[in-house]
C-alpha cells in the first residue's frame, strides 16, 4: 500500500513523527556520516510531506513557510530511503512539495539549500544557484532559488 501525505506538525501522530525522525537520522546523520543537530526546532512550523510504502516512510520532505529558514518558503530534508531509490520518488516529492507551496501557501519563490551534487536535479525543476559552493557540516552545499514554479 502506497500513499502520499502532507501534514502539519500538530497533525502528525507520535508514531508518524518517530518514523520521520528515524528515517531522517538514518539518511542524513548515519548514511552520510554527518553528526549534526537533526531535530532543529523548525519541524514545529513545517508541513511534512511523505510517502508511505509497506508501513514505513519511503520518501520525505520538510516544507517550511516563509520566514522560518529564509524570507521565502523552503523545501528541505529531502530524502528517499535507500531501498526505495531509483523509482522516481525524489522527483515526485519535489513536484508535490512545490505544488503545495504554490497551491496552499500561494507562494511563487522557493529557496533551498542543496547538496552540491544535486545541483542538476534541482535545476531540472527551475532552481538556479545563487551562491558559490560552500561547506555545511563538512558537505558541499549551494543555495538555490526558484522564482516561479507555475509552469
Automatic annotation (TrEMBL):
Pfam families linked to this entry: Acetyltransf_10 (PF13673)
Superkingdom: Bacteria
Database matches in CDD domains: NAT_SF (cd04301)
Residue ranges constituting the N-acetyltransferase domain according to the UniProt record: 7-149
UniProt cross-references to InterPro entries, sorted A to Z: Acyl_CoA_acyltransferase, GNAT_dom
Protein name: Protein ElaA
Record-level Gene Ontology MF annotations: acyltransferase activity, transferring groups other than amino-acyl groups
Organism expressing this protein natively: Falsibacillus pallidus
